[in-house]
Amino acid sequence: MAPPFDPADLPTGVMMALSPLVHRVLAPNPSPFTYTGTQTYIVGAQAVAVIDPGPDDADHLAALTAAIAGRPVVTILCTHTHRDHSPAARPLSDLTGAPVIGCAPLTLDDDGPRADAAFDADYRPTQVLADGDEVSGPGWTLAAVATPGHTSNHLCFALLEEKALFSGDHVMGWSTSVISPPDGDMTDYMRSMQLLLGRDDVVYYPAHGEPIENPQRLVRGMMGHRKQREGQILRFLERNGDSAIPDMVAEMYKGVDPRLHGAAGRSVLAHLIDLGGRGLAEPTGDGRWQMR
């Protein structure tokens, strides 16, 4: 599901230039689910935008303040409201006076296994962006691209001047995105992936992992991976009949770090809900499923 990682591979708190308009600062929150940590992006040269300010961590906020270096901050944008992405928005806004805009607020109890994936209940945007809405500064324009699936409120942001896309957790540079019901939705996720295939972005800047060149090839591969997983689930149900999700995970995720099995089970559940909506599977009670 994901390669091994060494948090020392990338330094935290250091601004790194990725393009004339894009710099990143890595937050000190590595984990099996965040890889080397959350990457906050600073867009622009004179007045800037900050994308996914990350966790409310004093060292990370100090690093962002140093990276901004006194320049005006036009806006603080959040792709979604998981705790590793948006909590620093409020203190950074207090420090810079910049408005917090982007995704809609969303607070609900997530019964999945990812402690880091809980929603940020304190996120309060000044403005919510709809698909296609733009925000701009000197030499840069960011357009919102609605990409529900990982969460229902997930947005990507397109940097029009460089044909770049800040892909948040929708497309990451190290692993597939976890789709965890009740808010994560596999049907929406696949629809959003199809939308990205129709775009002409030349690079993705994900919230976790390295920049993605030739992104449409990766998107096609990720969609193919999901279709293969769907096929595995259907074959399992056809062979075994009424089945529990942990039994599916044990067979389909052999060799995967057991710490990730809970998250894998959430993705299997998301597939099953999608299959149920298409009339191919149905729940039988007590978390078990069968072919319809």
Automatic annotation (TrEMBL):
CDD domains: metallo-hydrolase-like_MBL-fold
Keyword Hydrolase: yes
Domain Metallo-beta-lactamase per the UniProt entry, residue ranges: 36-208
Cross-referenced Gene3D superfamilies: Ribonuclease Z/Hydroxyacylglutathione hydrolase-like (3.60.15.10), Winged helix-like DNA-binding domain superfamily/Winged helix DNA-binding domain (1.10.10.10)
Keywords (A to Z) from UniProt: Hydrolase
Gene Ontology MF annotations: hydrolase activity
Matches recorded under PANTHER family: ENDORIBONUCLEASE LACTB2
Protein name (record): MBL fold metallo-hydrolase
